[in-house]
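The protein record now logged underneath.
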Amino acid sequence: MFGKAFGHGVDVVVNILSNWEVWLFIVLMGFVAAAPVFPSINILALIREFILYTWWFWLFFLLFELFRALFLHWRQQKFKKAEMAAEKFLLLEIRIPREMDKSPKAMAQVLGSLHMLGSGPGNWHEKYLDGQVPIWSALEIVKLEGEMHLYLRIPKKNRHLVEVAFFSNYPDVEVSEVADYMRNLPATTAEMYAREMDIWGTEMKLGSEDAYPIKTFADFESAEKQSDPIAVFLEVLGKLTEEEVACIQIIISPAPKDWAKKWEKVLDKLRELKFVDAGDAKVPLPATPGKSDMIAAVERKLTKSAFNTLIRIGYIAPVTLMKSGSAFARGGIVGAFNQYASPKLNSFKGNSETATKVDKWDWPHVNLNKRLEYRKQRMLHNLRERVNPPETFTAALLSSFFYDWNLDSKYFELSIDELATIFHPPSSVVLTAPHMRRVESKKAGPPSGLPIFGEEEHLDKFRTGIESSSK
């Protein structure tokens, strides 16, 4: 009981001190309280006296906020080191059958199951003492050694839950553990250059606020024509040679259940009615069909479960192919995200602040080669380790360098329908034969009632999966 009360008090204090309006109110009240004491002093002298007598008060709150941020960062780093180490994750490959009649809607069901695995801390103890942060997984579309692959990188403890979710919605799909392809790529830029290779990469971001949706699979399906948006990625990546490696990493973690609450003002603003004068009264104008569709689309997204999402694109190739290949990857892969643009709603665009490209007009305006080198090394590290964005400003600042500030890598919120539209096993309308190997035959279990003969200790292995100890 005492712990809950203390935790509630901590949350209240932190929330109060994180609002600038509260600080402004305290300052104004301080001036009001000090005015009678200094009636004949001008305003500048009053401010000086106020600071002189209250500096200790402001220093306390400044140090408190600094200590809170540093303490939280320390606890979160300790949690990630223990719970999000590479050895606690595995890579699953999705192999599709020769005939696939499932739409991306089935993938939305899979993502709905993944969302139930949990999100961030639920109370002050988990947040400040345990340092819990959301466990991030990765959905990956990869062109490797001339073939397309679909991967999921998940915590090992969630493997069976993920497999059940897939087999329930994709009975004919084969999901198997594979070695991490990233371990065969250079770990540092120095190693990369020694192998005569180079890297290009960037991250994507939304063009509007997260409340506005992109196109989903429902928009790509109609009575006259059905199309699968993943076909564009297969076509673009299919143009690369066996020596080139390209990947689209979609880093995800479940957003809180009340994630849509902070976007209620956006929806309220859309719902506002406009009035026109009609004699002595004002008459509301009915919403146009376009406006009604916008409101319906935003409402639909905000009622769905969502994931905190980061989309990262990487391209690694021999130096001899980099100039032409990276230009194709930049234009092709980034351009492929344009198909999700929804007029008057939302779209994707490249996050130039995270790209492996520098400009002399960007701060700090000097040492372009060194700045580019830092960005390449960070991109290579982020791709290999599937790094998630910093949870706090303090974490972003402490992971920055003078030539490479880590302040622009940020997640955004996508609903399960939006995410399933981007990543899903290709449906039957997609021609995948030149790019992706398919499972040649369906797997089926033995018929029920099949007799099994053998000694009792051998039968135990089939009943429980464990050899009998009585031999």
